[in-house]
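agent: user wants the full assembly modeled, not chains individually. Plan: 1) parse entity lines 2) check alphabet per entity 3) run joint structure prediction 4) return tokens. Steps 1-2 passed, two entities, 639 residues total. Proceeding.
--- entities ---
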Amino acid sequence: MSSVAQVLTTPEQHQATRARSETARGVLRYLRRNPSLGVGILLLLALLLFVVIGHLTVDTIQYRPLSTRPLQPPSLELPFGSDKQGRNLYAVMVEGTPLTLRIGLLAGVIGVALGTTLAFISGYYGGLVDSVIKTVVDVGLTIPGLLILIIIGMRVRGGLTVDQMALVVGLLAWLFPARTIRSQVLTLKQRGFVQVARLSGMSNPEVIVKELLPNLLPYLGASLVGSVSAAILASIGLEVLGLGPFEAPTLGMTLYWVIYNAAIINGWWWWWVPPIIVIAVLFIGLFLVAVGLDEIANPRIRNRV
Amino acid sequence: MPLAYVARRVGMFFLIVWLAATINFFLPRLGGQDPIREQLISQAALGGNVQSGLEEMIEIYNEKFGLNTPLWKQYLNYLGDMSRLDFNYSIANYPQRVMEIIGRAMPWTLVLLTTTTLFSWVVGTLLGAFMGWPRAPKFLSFLLPPLLSLSAVPFFLLGLVLIYVLAFRMRLFPLSGGYSPGTFPALTPTFLQDALRHSVLPALSIILVSLGGWALGMRAMMITTRGEDFVTYADAKGLKGRTIFLHYAIRNALLPQATALALVLGQLVSGAVLVEVVCSYPGIGNVLYEGIRAGDFYVVQGIIFILILSIGLATLILDLIYPLFDPRITYQRT
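--- prediction returned ---
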């Protein structure tokens, strides 16, 4: 099985590598062949652009309550209107979008870093450590992370800052990467070049860092994007349940206030439309990028999406 | 089915349940303080007509989990309570037992989740099977982008949009709740009809989102299966396209879909919790939300334990059924 995979992937991976190393035109040409990656990147760039333009056109301090008159529908002065506590919703979005991204990125990086380390230890060395890690991951993945996060969130009620929240979410984010990367390590370590490296006297850590890690980079990228997306989902879930950082204007907290104040059935549409659009664009963008990166990492699944 | 396989799965189930109880016990106690005790005392200090009951509860609590009892004994006490599914009283709604509250809410969640999951799994899988088949009608390929976008969005986000569009704007369905105010849950036709009307929105938001995921997964598996040698061989043999589609492609592509069902169970449950909150649906998720808002540790711990127990049980059942369907599966541990 692994030898077949090797024959099938190597030239494709090679092609993918070449495309990336070429000039911008090469990148564009590649994106045309891999449209999900292109569209996904575009969506995320659009969000970034929104944040940058926002920072230039509004005083973000107005995300705080009482900065303007409450419950104003959108107007020239307040493009997104204001909420019941007098937050300028434009400023809330501009300030909150990067905060949510920050939670996702921090937690995702923690998760992938922890998960990769464990995956390499588990997959490469095998033995008892492998059995223990594998069982822990299997059990852990059965339990919904959100439920564990709820218990932690209740313990540190209200005192959670954005970064602490990222840390808490990140503590559970390693399970899934650990499982998927472990299986990649298992197939990779059977390959010829790893055997050669070992026979030529490389130490185990050296093999991992110099031989295995570079070959898994596209795969790690894909699982990082997946983890970021999962972490954002978990953090928004916690926030909607009322366990988020109350002072921060993150997307999830905005939705919490929307639900808390029943903004939907009161007809205050401007309050909830922007966060929903931003969250949807964020998730769809991340999903498409993950699909696109998957294609780079594993060209055999081309045409799947 | 070899006994070792069954034993391993059952062992896994008990490991999950034990872990759930242990997390429930230790996480709130991290940092030395006991927030449950604090909550109990502050609730009792509020006074009111249930105060004497609460004081009794504190006494029992101190005996079982107080500072005089060593931690290992507290832990054993807790495990004992959990194994009897004794979650104590609700702190916020004192005379009610947590198990009573869960028992009232559980049928709602159970019905909502099983019907939506089964429905979206079956329909999504069929849809994906056609989408991954070259001889299928062309219009199906236009479904891909919307399904793809929907599958990336969380359930509750779609729920919010649906409430606005279908309930608030078009007034097709009730805005929130599980049944009309003033009626009482009973198994009468009128009530069931009312409950059904109320459950359309939460159900729809779960179905539409998960439909995309199942369709995408099945489509991918179909494309992979399509390239397998046995399909080419069946084609070369001159078998009818329908036969190949039904008996060669679908049957083989279906198996990973069944495995995936066991894998996403947890995500489904946490997604449904938030949908219930958004739709004020009277299920477990909403009770959990109320419990969190009131700082009612007993309710939250009870629900978390019950949910993990149910997920563990469902996973166990799926794991045990699965080998019956897939002759290729090996029972040895990998």
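agent: reporting back. Residues 89-125 of chain A form the longest helix (37 residues). Residues 54 and 94 of chain A are 6 Å apart (CA to CA).
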